[in-house]
UniProtKB/TrEMBL annotation:
Active site positions, chain numbering: H227 (proton acceptor)
PROSITE patterns: SIRTUIN
Molecular functions per Gene Ontology: histone deacetylase activity, NAD-dependent; metal ion binding; NAD+ binding
Name of protein: protein acetyllysine N-acetyltransferase
Positions annotated to bind Zn(2+): C235, C238, C253, C256
């Protein structure tokens, strides 16, 4: 099958090309070339390829080629990334070369970023719900996508009370690696935007499924960690706090001799009641719920958006089955999207 150019853009210093090849069944395999280098990382998923393009401000570059079969997909992607409908004129020309260009104001309703920024600029009680996608942009692999040592071991079988009790070495190795990985990661621009919005009185609380503490490290003052925190350790039996080093060294609780464990929610355990109740209360009272980096696949966290009676927005790298329930839907890189929103909010204030 022959290579075809699906999308090519030209920036001030670089050309970015998204190419594809179709197999006999018509399924595309996609890859990206930029800066003279070809990334033979292949995707069969359009959105995954877009997230890679998102590492550059491709939507601000000059569109050179849009493959006829991808016109509506590209148009949808640039609508979701436009800070100002006027930016869309060259994209409309590239995507729909035979149609007359309308007044850009007709696209205002379809651009989620400026509309969402208007809401953010006026609310005082927004709640943000974050999931694994928020952390992957800091370099923390998604819990469910096992890599390296853990490729053959399902985390859902290791991160359990049963493994902690019956195979403490495996349990400790698993968390030891995750803790070591944490030493090398830092919050990204998106974490800092959320912390800044809290200081400005826009965001009341961040509710997170992540256990890495990156929201705290970025300076968010009010964080409800629904799945606990990797940064602290307790005794599984008596609940006393313990040192991380003791856990990693294989020591037992100094008070009762019970096994030590990180303060995370293991598979099969209930979520911490207090954090859960605070999250529910904050979401019920909020006039904006911003869901970021979670596909809302896991119960009961996926029930939280339904509690909100205000505006609802989702920024995520993949389509979720709940997207239709949100007023604003953006499938793009999180850090980049939050920075754009922050710029728009500042312009409105
Ligand atoms: Zn104990």
């Amino acid at each position: 099958m022959a290579k075809e150019i699906l999308l090519q853009v030209e920036g001030p210093t670089e050309t970015i090309t998204l190419s594809g090849e179709r197999d006999e069944r018509g399924t595309w395999r996609l890859w990206v070339e930029r800066g003279g280098e070809e990334e033979r990382r292949e995707w069969d998923d359009w959105l995954d390829a877009l997230l890679t393009l998102d590492e550059n401000p491709w939507e601000e570059y000059e569109p050179v080629t849009v493959h006829p079969e991808f016109r509506s997909k590209v148009w949808g992607a640039v609508l979701q990334r436009a800070a100002d409908p006027a930016e869309l004129v060259p994209w409309f020309q590239a995507c729909f070369p035979d149609e007359p260009v309308p007044d850009p104001r007709v696209w205002e309703e379809k651009c989620p970023l400026p509309r969402l920024a208007e809401v953010i600029a006026r609310v005082r009680d927004a709640v943000v719900l974050t999931g694994a996608g928020m952390s992957t942009e800091s370099g923390i692999p998604d819990f469910r996508s096992s890599t390296g040592l853990w490729r053959k071991i399902d985390p859902r079988r290791v991160a359990t009370v049963e493994t902690m009790e019956k195979d403490p070495d495996l349990f400790r190795r698993f968390y030891g690696e995750r803790l070591r990985n944490l030493e090398h990661v830092r919050p990204h621009a998106g974490h800092y935007v959320l912390a800044e919005w809290a200081k400005q009185g826009i965001v009341r609380a961040v509710v997170t499924q992540n256990v890495d503490g990156l929201h705290h490290r970025a300076g968010s003052p009010e964080v409800y960690e629904l799945h606990g925190s990797l940064r602290t350790v307790r005794c599984h039996r008596c609940g006393s706090p313990a040192d991380l080093e003791d856990f990693l060294g294989g020591d037992a609780c100094g008070l009762c001799g019970g096994p030590l464990r990180p303060n995370v929610v293991l598979f099969g355990e209930l979520l911490p009641e207090e954090e859960w109740d605070r999250a529910i209360r904050a979401i019920r009272e909020s006039s904006l719920l911003l869901v970021i980096g979670t596909s809302l696949e896991v119960y009961p966290v996926n029930q939280l958006p339904m509690l909100s009676t205000g505006r609802k927005a989702i920024i995520n790298g993949s389509v979720t089955e709940w997207d239709h329930r949100f007023h604003h839907v953006i499938h793009a890189r999180i850090g980049k999207t939050l920075m754009k929103l922050d710029r728009l909010v500042k312009e409105m204030k």
